[in-house]
């Protein structure tokens, strides 16, 4: 992905010493990640170690909100 077209807003905010608020999500389903994504968090960690029993659950959760 070209950074000129899709700048990494998270890295830019960290470089500017701006506070970033995030969430740790252990629910491996796309609905929970979509709700958290639309809630306005700056970052989201998907913990697939304990909850995502199948790889496709983690992949669908990581797809993010549909716009």
**Number of helical stretches of at least 4 residues:** 3
Radius of gyration, whole Å: 13 Å
Poorly predicted runs of 5 or more residues: none
**Proportion of helical residues:** 25-40%
Q: What amount of the residues lies in strands?
A: 5-15%
EC number: 4.1.2.20
GO molecular function: 2-dehydro-3-deoxyglucarate aldolase activity; metal ion binding
InterPro entries: Pyrv/PenolPyrv_kinase-like_dom, Pyrv_kinase-like_dom_sf
Protein name: 2-dehydro-3-deoxyglucarate aldolase
Task: Briefly say what this structure is.
This protein has 67 residues and is of the alpha+beta class. It has helices at residues 9-15, 30-38, 55-62; strands at residues 22-25, 43-46.
What does this protein structure show overall?
The chain is α+β, with helices and mostly antiparallel strands. It has one domain (14-62). It is built from three helices and two strands. The chain has helices at 9-15, 30-38, 55-62, and strands at residues 22-25, 43-46. The protein has a two-stranded parallel sheet. Helix 2 (30-38) packs parallel to helix 3 (55-62). It starts with 8 loop residues before the first helix and ends in a 5-residue tail after the last helix. The mean pLDDT is 79.
């Amino acid at each position: 992905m070209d950074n000129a077209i899709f700048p990494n807003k998270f890295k830019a905010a960290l470089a500017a010493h701006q506070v970033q608020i995030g969430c740790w999500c252990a629910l491996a389903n796309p609905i929970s990640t979509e709700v958290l994504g639309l809630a306005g968090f700056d970052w989201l960690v998907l913990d697939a170690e304990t909850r995502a029993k199948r790889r496709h659950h983690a992949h669908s959760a990581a797809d993010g909100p549909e716009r």
